[in-house]
Design goal:
Chain lengths: 238, 449
């Protein structure tokens, strides 16, 4: 385990943070601190180049115009892409899937280039998908159902290099009729479970942290209220 | 000295709907309109007697069913102020009504019902009033303004509400902008510290700009007119030395307009160098901004600024909010918050010397079923205060508080949560249905006691 402080990149919270997504960076930091590991959040705004040296990165969702600003900034300062290239874990929420893909179509029908970190493309669904979503994880290292709240118009199709994060048991997910939710490619994990997805999914949080620290697993953290929240939200799917 | 419009000095007494006879403003109603008003009054009376709440909504719904043009008939004889925005609508409406009452009789909502039926109910409960202060839901402003032809439209602020229900905030701004374009004669009283409000009002020919404060910049990093970034910088006002946050678009000619009215901690400053001491009964910075806009609106309709300030300052309670209630060994102060900006404001009003703080969160449809916003609110540390996470979604809140490092206990039932606090003063902060249900529960508790 590294001696120094773990640095968590909160990427463009000024434009990509529609629904409390910055909570994910906070949860990662606190789960490290609760284990006695020093950690800090590095906020990267539109006025900063994106550094490639951080240990783990989180990105949030956005509305159309803000999403476009974020895409332009990431293309201009490709620190995130370089970090992902060396295997630094990245958590991308909701619209960030679209920004990290090859392209996405706006609600007005315009096609906008993404940064091609993920082999996906996104077009609007007929209707917005809004509500609780539950999936069975499809990623090695995850054993517990994933739970979240989705609210997105975009429907995302996976290319050959991308795999899903989970299979939907309740809700919509990626929204193209294949029953899949989220995208995993290399060290990038992305999901339509928006906002503070890690609040309900501590196993996913710890998987990101273990990868950031280069260890197989972290010592377990007993947070009774988190277990209770999972029970309450998973009951929605029954 | 003040920007004024012609003022009617008539002081009509309030009359019961339907009994106005052949003289007075009631003559402007069609036969169908009068029938609708009478039916509304009867239904409201019956609903109240049946114990089904205040009855005004029922009356309004029935009246609109009988005569859909009733709203414009009701509005035609009145000089009306329409008040909208994400937060502070009910408070500002109450303050505007109080300020307008210094120059005439005012029709206004008693209950914050701000869509068609509630508006018709408010107007028909005070048919002969020459003035009206009407709270309107953001998305209803265009068609309500078409019906009421208001003299002034107050735009407070626009921020994210419950997005799983309403839609994106930029769409609301565009609809408001389009709605205002149909009313070039109305004076728009707009908050210049709010980028989205400023965008909605920017093209209007008659704008009174008020620096009412912008607590929540999170929804306005991108320019609503060009999509390019908005740049913020702290500046100091030239005339006053008061610091403020200037903003400008990097994509088009759009920046913070110079205010006609602005504030510091003790005064309200207005046109022509006026400086009026202002000390409100209601707590919080946001309410000072609300008062400034209410005063600017009332002055636009002819009120004296000093009188308007005194009237707005006397407002102490809005539908149970900010009120003090005794329950057993606890004196409660009730605060309501409906969205991230409202929560941040309400948290800033919490008295750190109290004995307990109960935060109650529900996730029903009127609250928004998505609780992600909890993570957009900064929860401070409340040293020495017992904090209880409560409400139907108490667990979501408890997890948020855990990660914020705020010590707390968990008790989903708000009455039991209050009872678990040490005897003394307890602040209760709740979202919409949690607030509503707790008020009902407290009333029952105190009745049974």
């Amino acid at each position: 385990m590294p001696e120094s402080t773990v640095r968590i990149g909160l990427v463009l919270p000024d434009v990509m943070g529609t629904y409390g997504d910055s909570g994910n960076a906070l949860i990662l930091r606190q789960r490290l601190r609760m284990r006695g590991i020093d950690a800090e959040i590095v906020e990267i705004t539109l006025s900063d180049p994106v550094p490639e040296s951080l240990d783990v990165y989180t990105l949030g969702g956005a509305e159309d115009s803000a999403q476009r600003l974020a895409t332009r900034h990431l293309a201009r300062y490709p620190g995130l892409q370089k970090a992902a290239g060396r295997g630094a874990p990245v958590l991308a929420i909701c619209a960030a899937i679209q920004v990290l893909g090859h392209w996405y179509e706006t609600s007005a029908g315009e096609r906008v280039e993404g940064v091609s970190l993920l082999d996906v493309t996104t077009s609007p669904q007929a209707e917005r998908s809004i509500g609780e979503v539950i999936t069975r994880p499809a990623l090695d290292g995850l054993t517990q159902p994933l739970t979240g709240f989705e609210n997105h118009r975009g429907g995302t199709s996976l290319g050959a290099d991308a795999t899903p994060l989970g299979r939907v048991t309740h809700g919509v997910g990626n929204g193209v009729g294949d029953g899949l939710e989220g995208v995993v490619q290399g060290s990038v994990i992305s999901t339509y479970m928006h906002g503070p997805a890690l609040a309900r999914n501590p196993e996913l949080a710890d998987l990101l942290l273990a990868r950031a620290l280069g260890v197989d697993a972290l010592e377990p953290l007993e947070l009774e209220e988190v277990d209770r929240l999972r029970r309450e939200r998973l009951a929605v799917g029954r | 000295m003040w920007k004024t419009l012609p003022v009617s000095t008539r002081h009509d007494g309030a009359t019961r709907p339907g009994n106005s006879g052949a003289t007075g403003p009631a003559t402007r109603f069609s036969v169908r309109g009068r029938l609708a008003l009478r039916a509304a009054a009867a239904a409201a009376w019956a609903s109240q007697k049946a114990g089904r709440g205040k009855g005004s909504m029922i009356g309004g719904l029935i009246a609109l069913k009988i005569d859909p043009t009733l709203m414009s008939q009701l509005g035609s004889g009145k000089r009306t102020v329409v008040i909208t925005g994400t937060n502070g609508k009910s408070t500002t409406t109450r303050m505007t009504a109080a300020a307008l009452a210094t120059i005439g009789d005012v029709a206004t909502q008693a209950d914050g019902a701000n869509m068609d039926a509630g508006i018709v109910a408010a107007l028909s409960s005070h048919v002969d009033a020459s003035l009206a202060a009407i709270e309107v839901d953001e998305l209803h402003v265009p068609h309500v303004s078409d019906a009421l032809q208001p003299q002034a439209i107050v735009l407070l602020n626009l921020s994210r509400d419950q997005l799983d229900r309403v839609g994106e905030i930029n769409m609301i701004e565009r609809k408001l902008r389009a709605g205002l374009a149909r009313h070039p004669d109305a004076v728009v009283i707009a908050n210049c510290d709010d980028v989205l409000v400023a965008s909605a009002a920017y093209d209007a020919p008659n704008v009174v700009w008020v620096a009412a404060g912008g607590g929540w910049a999170g929804d306005s990093v991108s320019c609503p007119r060009s999509g390019e970034p908005i740049v913020w910088e702290e500046r100091t006002g030239d005339a006053t030395g008061i610091a403020y946050n200037h903003w400008r678009s990097t994509g088009t000619d759009f920046e913070r307009p110079t205010p006609d009215w602005w504030l510091d901690d003790d005064h309200l400053y207005g046109p022509d160098g006026s400086k009026i001491p202002m000390s409100l009964t209601l707590p919080g910075k946001a309410n000072r901004g609300n008062a400034a806009q209410a005063v600017a609106a009332a002055v636009t309709l002819g009120a004296r600024a000093e009188d308007a300030v005194a009237a707005a300052a006397s407002v102490r309670e809005i539908a149970g909010r900010y009120s003090s209630v005794q329950v057993g060994a606890h004196t409660l102060r009730m605060l309501l918050a409906k969205n991230p900006a409202g929560w941040q404001e309400a948290l800033s009003m919490i008295d750190h010397d109290v004995d307990g703080l109960v935060i109650a969160v529900n996730g029903q449809v009127p609250d928004g079923e998505d609780l992600s916003w909890l993570w957009d609110v900064r929860f401070e540390h409340f040293e020495g205060v017992k904090v209880v996470a409560s409400g139907e979604r108490a667990t979501d809140l408890a997890v948020r508080l855990t990660y914020a490092g705020v010590e707390h206990t968990l008790e989903p039932n708000p009455l039991r949560a209050i009872a678990s606090c040490p005897p003394g003063r307890v602040e209760v902060l709740a979202n919409y249905t949690a607030f509503r249900d707790l008020n009902t529960a407290i009333a029952k508790e105190n009745r049974d006691a």
